[in-house]
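R.M. (postdoc): so does anyone remember the format we settled on? I'll just put the structure tokens first.
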């Protein structure tokens, strides 16, 4: 399958409710490896980043709406428009190649339509873009409800958040200090001609100048490094595990934070990595093996400890709670179109249920670090404030973070800050 046809098929699956990661796994193997597969990935990510803007342009350019059965042609038009706006493909080549896909979709009648839509856009580009960019939701290609949430939560930063969500994310490495040092690994990268730099905000992190396949990273298979955003790397330091401490990493898959904790605290007593999905435990175990680490890996619902807890309390608990993902949209642009405003109350209820269930498992004097990849207050500081109001043995503990913004005892890292994803951390101490 060629890249443009694959992009149309993948977009259709995402808008039917499939996640982008699942869709890529299902469709990309049918595309030739190399430049064609890279183009397919670029097209589907790019269209999802800019979908509502591209769709608004497409609808302005059509003389009449397409029928529901021709959704694939509408998606094909957005693929063509994305190429004309964002890629360096010569315009005539983009138009011709995109129109030809209509034949592969068995809709020969649409070849002329796609040609006409894209050629008209190239002629009237500036006026058309000005027309659709008159509202924030289309200018930055976000659903109106999410724009409104950003504006309410971050009145000084909402435009920057929207802009950052549409940027290509960087690739950040986490150096396994049990096997090497950031300085030594940086030298290894330089020997291979791979440009990278350290990040002051994350002592184990190296930021690559350009993303590349992990197979090209020296020593990756031998466990020298992992791929993990620097915002996610903050969790290990914030947990501050004592020697011999017993730690629970709830909602642990795919195991990035689990492994970082074991790398950072070699004198840890026991680390229990828990996840509700048994099929995801294989990812945790695979990462542990590659890095030469060991943990107790269990399948279980963190909100129902009676099904898996052995009754021994934990000194530290990391709750990386399921959330809206509003801080990692640049990595998962499908979030913008699959997430709905009415998902947030259900997510907040799940987050609170997890907190209520895990708190009794924490030893007095212990700490629970609550983390999400969301920048929305209802999933973060509001939730923790309500929890503390009903738990006299819980108090917020200030976090030692030199970046981001502190709010009500918790701490936000806003998307794009120091190259990082958007994250929230809050630390609860138990008396």
């Amino acid at each position: 399958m060629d890249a443009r046809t694959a992009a149309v098929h993948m977009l259709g699956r995402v808008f039917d409710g499939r996640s982008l990661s699942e869709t890529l796994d299902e469709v990309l193997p049918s595309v030739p490896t190399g430049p064609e597969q890279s183009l397919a990935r670029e097209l589907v990510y790019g269209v999802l980043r800019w979908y509502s803007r591209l769709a608004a342009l497409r609808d302005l350019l059509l003389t009449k709406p397409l029928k529901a059965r021709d959704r694939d042609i509408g998606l094909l038009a957005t693929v063509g428009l994305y190429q004309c706006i964002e890629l360096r493909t010569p315009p005539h080549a983009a138009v011709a190649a995109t129109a030809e896909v209509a034949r592969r979709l068995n809709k020969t009648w649409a070849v002329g339509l796609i040609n006409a839509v894209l050629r008209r856009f190239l002629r009237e580009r500036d006026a058309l873009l000005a027309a659709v960019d008159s509202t924030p939701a289309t200018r930055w290609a976000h659903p109106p409800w999410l724009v409104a949430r950003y504006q309410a939560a971050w009145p000084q930063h909402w435009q920057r958040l929207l802009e950052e969500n549409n940027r290509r994310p960087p690739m950040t490495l986490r150096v396994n200090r049990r096997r090497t040092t950031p300085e030594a690994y940086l030298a290894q990268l330089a020997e291979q001609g791979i440009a990278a730099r350290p990040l002051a905000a994350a002592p184990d992190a190296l930021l690559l100048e350009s993303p590349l396949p992990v197979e090209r990273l020296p020593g990756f298979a031998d466990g020298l490094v992992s791929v993990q955003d620097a915002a996610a790397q903050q969790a290990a330091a914030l947990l501050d595990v004592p020697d011999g401490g017993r730690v629970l990493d709830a909602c642990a898959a795919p195991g990035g934070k689990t492994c970082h904790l074991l790398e950072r605290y070699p004198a840890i007593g026991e680390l229990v990595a828990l996840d509700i999905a048994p099929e995801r435990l294989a990812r945790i175990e695979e990462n542990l093996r590659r890095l030469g680490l060991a943990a107790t890996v269990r399948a279980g619902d963190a909100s129902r400890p009676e099904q898996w807890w052995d009754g021994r309390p934990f000194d530290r608990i990391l709750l990386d709670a399921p959330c809206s993902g509003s801080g990692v949209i640049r990595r998962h642009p499908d979030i913008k179109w699959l997430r709905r405003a009415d998902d947030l109350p259900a997510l907040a209820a799940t987050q609170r249920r997890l907190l209520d269930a895990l708190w009794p498992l924490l030893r007095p004097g212990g700490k629970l670090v609550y983390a999400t990849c969301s920048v929305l207050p209802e999933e973060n500081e509001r939730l923790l404030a309500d929890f503390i109001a009903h738990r006299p043995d819980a108090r917020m503990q200030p976090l030692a973070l030199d970046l981001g913004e502190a709010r009500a005892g918790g701490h936000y890292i806003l998307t794009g800050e120091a190259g990082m994803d958007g994250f929230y951390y809050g630390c609860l101490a138990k008396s």
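R.M.: ...and that's the designed sequence above, right after the tokens. Also worth knowing: The two ends are 60 Å apart (CA to CA). DSSP finds 17 helices and 13 strands in the chain.
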